[in-house]
Specification:
- The chain is mainly β.
- It has a single domain, classed as UDP N-Acetylglucosamine Acyltransferase, domain 1 (3 Solenoid).
- Helices cover 13% and strands 37% of the residues.
- Strands 1, 2, 4, 6, 8, 9, 11, 12, 14, 15, 17 and 18 form a 12-stranded parallel sheet that branches. An 8-stranded mixed sheet has the order 3-5-7-10-13-16-19-20.
- Strand 19 and strand 20 (138-143) form a beta hairpin.
- The two termini are 20 Å apart.
């Protein structure tokens, strides 16, 4: 797995985290117990720290970064889905940022909230806990609980925790 020291700052990865061999971590990155960073994801912490809390999953092709002085944090059990960008934002526990979404500087996504696929969360926006936001720019639509989105918010953390352990133990590089 590509881990890079940058100006004396190096990624810290818990022994039970899964980092895919094609994911890239640079600088002041912290990955906690049971978290996963999937294939092709880039986590670059050269300006400010990026913290991925226990059980969170950063899926294929996602990019996490932030501007100077603005930490990026992914809460416990949170999901950053395929091809998302999270830039200088705080994601609450077990929230879900769905495929292709962008969350910009200073935004906060509350615990258990869902950002719908393809949405853009503007700088400084706050999505309260348990709410669904969608669109570009994202607007708050309704509560997640009891909606079809509720399934994904609740199912993703344990599913990806189990899948990460399978990948951690079960992938093998195939040479031609």
């Amino acid at each position: 797995m590509p881990l890079y020291d940058f100006e004396g700052l190096r990624p810290e990865v818990h022994a039970r985290a899964f980092i895919a061999p094609t994911a890239t971590l640079v600088g002041d990155v912290h990955v906690e117990d049971g978290a996963s960073v999937w294939y092709g994801a880039v986590v670059r912490a050269d300006y400010a720290p990026v913290v991925i809390r226990a059980g969170a999953n950063i899926q294929d092709g996602a990019v996490l970064h932030g501007p100077p002085g603005l930490m990026t944090e992914v809460g416990r059990g949170a999901t950053v889905a395929h091809n998302c960008v999270v830039h200088g934002a705080i994601l609450g526990d077990e929230c879900l940022v769905a495929n292709g979404s962008i969350v910009l500087d200073g935004a906060t996504i509350g615990a258990g909230a869902l950002v719908a696929a393809g949405s853009v969360v503007a700088s400084g926006m706050t999505i309260p806990p348990g709410m669904l936001a969608a669109g570009s720019p994202a607007v708050i639509k309704r509560g997640v609980e009891g909606s079809p989105a509720d399934f994904w918010v609740k199912a993703n953390p344990p599913a990806y925790a189990e899948l990460a352990q399978r990948h951690r133990l079960g992938i093998t590089w195939i040479r031609d």
